[in-house]
Amino acid sequence: METMIISLLILAILILFFLNLIFGALLAIVISRPKNKSYADSYCFSPFETGVPFNVVEFTTEDGVTLRGWLLPGNGRNINRVVIGLCGRMGTKSDLLGVGSYLNKSGYSVLLFDYRGCGESDLSTMSMGQLELFDVKAAVDFVSNKIQNAKIGIIGFSMGASLGIVHASTDDRIVALVSDSPFVSSEELILNRVKKYFPLPLIFLKLSTRFSVKSFLGYDNRGIDVIGSAKKLSFNNLLVIISESDSVIAPSQQLEVFDAAPFPKEVWKLSDVEHCGAYFLDRKKYVKRIIAFFDDNLS
């Protein structure tokens, strides 16, 4: 009987081990697979619908991926003030048309673009921020080359919020940043969501996912260092927007990012707001606050 129990325990451990390997490989595919593209990708709102001028642009990352987007040219005193919009994971440039159009109508130049594997940009392996950092750098390089003496700000949402912090910590061309609903760890975010829907023990899932991503896709899945980057920020100001009813990224994570950053900084907490929902709660109030922030800090 004792031998049988030990054998069953060993069998259960082996089954769990292989389940973790399988789920790790599947998770690596889900994380990294580019979005399927079809004719419908062209059937989206553009700056034409919001009545602002725009140019279709493209630029290439250091690792050879061509990204495509819209440059909304500024005017008046803000002509060399540029805001780059960073959407959430799997999002597209049209997601930020509301904020981007109002910034442009206030005189700012605005760059909205699709990450690799999304929208109109090249099909390419995706990640939870590690590879998309190349995309952010390419966008900043493009703006710097396109607009003389550009003063650059970033507004990012979800993954874009965290990407903005990580990139800005190493690039002194960024002088102001709005970070709406940032996460601390992309890896933990994914694993927690998997465990929520799959109750079996997945104690090896983190390691098996890392192994699969590194072996088959060639990049490190341990996540971007958001907290470490926040501590290194040295530009004029940071505004962190926290959705206090966020079911995707814990509000405590968002506050942790804010706490890690040095002053000067601002926090805007909104109760009863879901993930990245501040804009939709009160569009007019949101854009007014964002424009005032960039007016103060992109000088």
Descriptive labels:
globular, 11 helices, 299 residues, alpha/beta, 8-stranded mixed β-sheet, 8 strands
Structure, briefly:
This protein is of the alpha/beta class and about 300 residues long. About 45% of the residues lie in helices and about 15% in strands.
Anisotropy-based shape: globular
Task: Give the CA-CA distance, first to last residue.
Answer: 78 Å
Largest sheet: 8 strands, mixed
Class derived from helix and strand content:
alpha/beta
- Please report the number of helical segments: 11
Classify the beta-strand content into a percent band: 15-25%
List how many beta strands DSSP finds.
8
Range of helix content: 40-55%
Q: Radius of gyration in whole Å, from Cα?
A: 21 Å
* Mean pLDDT metric: 85
How are the strands ordered across the major sheet? 1-2-4-3-5-6-7-8
Secondary-structure element string? HHEEEHEHEHEHHHEHEHH
Low-confidence stretches: none
Description of the molecule:
With 299 residues, the protein is α/β, with parallel strands linked by helices. The chain has helices spanning 2-32, 47-50, 97-105, 132-146, 159-168, 186-197, 205-217, 226-231, 251-260, 278-281, 283-297, and strands spanning 55-60, 66-72, 81-86, 109-113, 151-157, 174-180, 237-243, 266-270. Strands 1-2-4-3-5-6-7-8 form an eight-stranded mixed β-sheet, sandwiched between helices. Helix 4 (132-146) crosses helix 5. The radius of gyration is 21 Å and the shape is globular. The termini are far apart. The model has no long low-confidence stretch (mean pLDDT 85).
